Amino acid sequence: MNEITDTSTSIADSGVGPTSRIGALSRRLAILVSDRVLAELADSGQPDIRAVHLRVFAAIADSPLSVTDTARRLGTTKQTVGPIVRELESKGLVSLIRDPADARAYLVSFTDRGRAAALQAQSIADRLDDRFADVIGIDRLADCRAALWELIDQTSWEAPPS
């Protein structure tokens, strides 16, 4: 992946159905969860958080982290992540400080407001997981997690087909 892109509900509402490819189903579920998290954040007074911000929040959970390492965790470049981090800084959600080990680099860390927003987003996502367990049962949800992780783990080291 070379760039981080925002998604919209129009993708989630596309022609994905029960017989769709696993990647399409996984993406649709991820978009629906993200949309729900963003809607609840907006309802609670955080309307300026976007889906791409949630990805950065997850990447810097154990901050401080360099912009380069943040980009690496997201599978993209620091040139892509830099403007997003600066946007988060302008919103008062993260702070940037010079890396004491490398004066050319910056470390990204949450502000109190940013950590609160990230924790709230995580709480909403956890509540959605609980809802999924209510719908399909805790054992099936565990099986889904295990199966998806196995697919991720299996394909993460394979070369793309030629």
Question: Please, could you describe this protein's structure?
Answer:
This protein has 162 residues and is mainly α. The chain has seven helices and three strands. The chain has helices spanning 9-12, 22-43, 51-59, 67-74, 78-90, 112-136, 138-156; strands at residues 65-66, 94-99, 102-110. It has a three-stranded antiparallel sheet. Strand 2 (94-99) and strand 3 form a beta hairpin. Helix 4 crosses helix 5 (78-90). It is globular and about 50 Å long. The two termini are 18 Å apart. 20% of the residues are buried.
Keywords:
10% strand, mainly alpha, disordered N terminus, single chain, 162 residues
Helix and strand topology:
Blueprint: H1 9-12, H2 22-43, H3 51-59, E1 65-66, H4 67-74, H5 78-90, E2 94-99, E3 102-110, H6 112-136, H7 138-156
Antiparallel strand pairs: 1-3, 2-3
Helix pairs in contact: 2-6, 4-5, 6-7
Largest sheet geometry: 3 strands, antiparallel
Helix content: 55-70%
Instruction: Name the shape in a single word.
Output: globular
Category by helix and strand content: mainly alpha
* Number of separate strands: 3
> What separation lies between the terminal Cα atoms?
18 Å
Q: Catalogue the unreliable spans.
A: 1-12
User: Gyration radius, to the nearest Å?
Assistant: 17 Å
Major sheet: arrangement of strands: 1-3-2
Number of discrete helical segments: 7
Instruction: List SSEs in N-to-C order.
Output: HHHEHHEEHH
The share of residues in extended strands comes to: 5-15%
